[in-house]
């Protein structure tokens, strides 16, 4: 089958949404279109295929808004592949653009600068403390982000990594923080709208399910066009589903000086499913790599800088970020479509 890459990999939120809605209609999925409470033109759409199987697939796109263009392409393709690749009776829920503001305005974070993957916490409890982030924030909270500021930041980065190691840097920069609302990886001080939407979806899942595979699709971490699978939670019942997946794709990835452990990330979204279904759930964060570690750090800083120092309506200021998270290169797009379909086919193939 020839895949129309331009159809699946859209360049704007509304086109991606219309493709997803049309694909859902083609397979007679029931739809819930959840309108954003502040931006009525934006929606999180939930496509549900209510089948008899006691196994369920839940996919999520757009947790990190701008990364939703990759996830949306995967979800729309999955819907179009129903008759060819997926079990006929598989119960499916596809959550499209969980962070529609970020997808529309080409930002990882939501309208309040909240990183949804640091927001799924119990806010009645003390929030995690990130002791090293206060050293980083003054270097990126600057009115101008040009060569002198960039050189100062990267000099600090090299010194920090030399002293504490890359894993500590990743925890400091990427692990989440709750003290600087205008900083990177801010987890918020209360459940976001998207967090509440996710809980609604979880509460609507049938109680008779035996196994729930949750996949939160992302882009930007890892080698170019390489699929990387983080296992955030796995019940013993669901663990065998990973047996057909190549081991070099799973768990902790160390390549190009990248070392990430999901245990060190606070408020991870897919962990919400594990809280409700600890004995039934396989929770995965699946990344499709784009560019090297330092380029993606730069993208996160530039995203934050654009939010506070550029007009949101000036899309040209953000266009370059979209290519970093959803490259136009045909090889990258083909690999994303092929690998994601292969992953899900193997997860639900007969033992």
Question: Summary?
Answer:
With 351 residues, the chain is of the alpha/beta class. The protein contains 14 helices and nine strands. The longest helix has 18 residues, at 147-164.
Number of helices: 14
Low-confidence stretches: 252-260
Percent of residues in helices comes to 40-55%
Which word captures the global form? globular
Mean pLDDT: 90
Distance between the termini: 26 Å
Secondary-structure element string? HHEEEHHEHHHHHEEHEEHEHHH
- Oligomerization state of this entry? single chain
When the domains are counted, the total is 1
CATH architecture: 3-Layer(aba) Sandwich
- For the biggest β-sheet, the strand order reads 1-2-4-3-5-9-6
Derived from helix and strand composition plus strand pairing, the structural class reads alpha/beta
Q: How many β-strand runs?
A: 9
State which percent range the strand residues make up: 15-25%
Question: Remind me, CATH topology?
Answer: Aminopeptidase
The largest β sheet comes out as: 7 strands, mixed
Would you mind describing this structure in some detail?
- With 351 residues, the chain is an alpha/beta fold.
- The protein has one domain (5-347): Aminopeptidase (3-Layer(aba) Sandwich).
- Helices cover 40% and strands 16% of the residues.
- A seven-stranded mixed sheet has the order 1-2-4-3-5-9-6, sandwiched between helices. A two-stranded antiparallel ribbon has the order 7-8.
- Helix 2 runs parallel beside helix 3 and helix 3 (68-80) crosses helix 14 (330-347).
- The longest helix has 18 residues, at 147-164.
- The protein is globular.
